[in-house]
Design a protein that fits this description.
This protein has about 280 residues and is of the alpha/beta class. The protein folds into two domains: about 160 residues, P-loop containing nucleotide triphosphate hydrolases (Rossmann fold, 3-Layer(aba) Sandwich), CATH 3.40.50.300; about 70 residues, no CATH class. About 30% of the residues lie in helices and about 25% in strands. Strands 8-9-10-5-11-12 form a six-stranded mixed β-sheet, with helices on both faces. A four-stranded antiparallel β-sheet has the order 4-3-6-7. The N and C termini lie far apart (about 50 Å).
Length: about 280
């Protein structure tokens, strides 16, 4: 069933109203790195606002993310980057504006979150693996509990994604037996086991030792090249240059600038972005 959601005075967007029981299958295509996605919008934000007491952590965000697009969100600490992507799957509630994810509107009261979470994967800074479960069991849990897959189906899928991230040999290891980079790769495989249409990564390398960063970024780069819609908060500017279709620069809860990687790194338009890049690039 289709319904039209009013976005602002000049624009209405038609979205599909889905029931809680609907299951989605991901169709993954191959998109050349650096080529802008041309699919329909899968994330729509209109004048999105969020406050912590009197502090505006998100201050009027307007953003569209298209299917298959690869976006890197960067900016100084406290600029609202993590809050932005955490709103997309309802880990943070917003107070004003409009947010539509894959055709489902998330209300300020949290309505629609359960549907959206079935279609989005999230990778955190701190891994958040269950310490009492093996890598395999961590990957099997949500598909069995949320998607109602049987044990054999969940195991087969978990094995496939652990292989994809290079962790099949560690499938029966517990998190305490894995390095930080290995735990993060398992966390990525766990997110993929939900067959997400959108992947959200919140500084996936920030908790890693420097020598472990590359192994995780290689996995994320593989995701970026697979055609999945991806939003990644990171300070790894080399990854942004290589993998992103678009770089979004935030400061003080606002999107200050957004451009292709080539434009952003070679000719940033705002003084704040120029200052940021001069400090982070060596």
């Amino acid at each position: 069933m289709m319904r039209t959601l009013p976005i602002d005075n000049n624009q209405n967007i038609q979205v599909e109203a889905r029931s809680m029981g609907a299951e989605q299958q991901v169709e993954v295509g191959i998109a050349p790195a650096g080529k802008a996605a041309t699919g329909q919008p899968v994330v729509i934000m209109r004048d999105l606002k969020k406050w912590y007491a009197d502090f505006a952590v998100l201050d009027g965000i307007d953003l569209e993310v298209r299917k298959g697009e690869r976006i890197v969100v960067c900016g100084p600490s406290g600029s609202g980057k993590s809050t932005l992507i955490r709103c997309i799957n309802g880990l943070e509630e917003y107070q004003a504006g409009k947010l539509i994810v894959n055709g489902t509107e998330i209300g300020t009261d949290g309505s629609g979150v359960d549907i959206v979470r079935k279609e989005t994967g999230m990778v955190f800074q701190g891994f958040h693996l269950f310490p009492h479960l093996t890598a395999m069991e961590n990957c099997m849990l949500a598909p069995m509990r949320v998607l109602k897959k049987n044990k054999a189906q969940a195991r087969e899928q978990a094995q496939a994604f652990l292989e994809r991230v290079g962790m099949a040999a560690k499938a029966n290891h517990y998190p305490s037996q894995l390095s930080g980079g290995q735990q993060q790769r398992v966390a990525i495989a766990r997110a993929l086991c939900m067959n997400p249409q959108i992947m959200l990564l919140d500084e996936p390398t920030s908790a890693l030792d420097p020598e472990m960063v590359k192994e995780v970024l290689d996995v994320v780069l593989g995701l970026a090249e697979s055609g999945i819609t991806l939003l990644c908060v990171t300070h790894e500017m080399g990854f942004a240059r290589q993998a992103a279709d678009r770089v979004i620069f935030m400061d003080r809860g606002q999107i200050v600038e957004q451009a292709s990687p080539d434009e952003f790194f070679k000719a940033p338009k705002s003084e704040r972005a120029k200052q940021f890049l001069s400090q982070i690039l060596h």
